[in-house]
Amino acid sequence: MASHYHAIVWIDHREAKVFHFNATEVDRMILHPHNPTRHIHHKANAIGSGDAPLDQEFFEQVTEAIANAKTILITGPTSAKSELAAHMARRHPDIARCVVGVEAIDHPSDGALIAVARLYFKADDRSRPQI
User: Fold this and answer.
1) Domain tally, the chain
2) Average pLDDT of 47-58?
């Protein structure tokens, strides 16, 4: 995968789409957890919250995939986006400093996601030197 200044991640608990891009090029990668979570129903009077445990290995794979980006936007429809940001802040603070936003986005097409990212970073680029 080529090295681009910007990266956007769309993540839920079943997959992560990682895009490295510039004004004219896009490199795409799709990552899947080893044990994708299924929807869990909580039974009354049962012990535990009914939530699936976080997949730290999956978050590590995603973090590794975006480690070379200088600006990162994390998106997705569920809590996985904020869980990824928190994971990066705990374990990879140098990469977490490159995160410029965590935004809720439902299920866009790849083209729509890149369009949102380019628009987002166009405004962000005006305030940052690109080295």
Assistant:
1) 1
2) 67
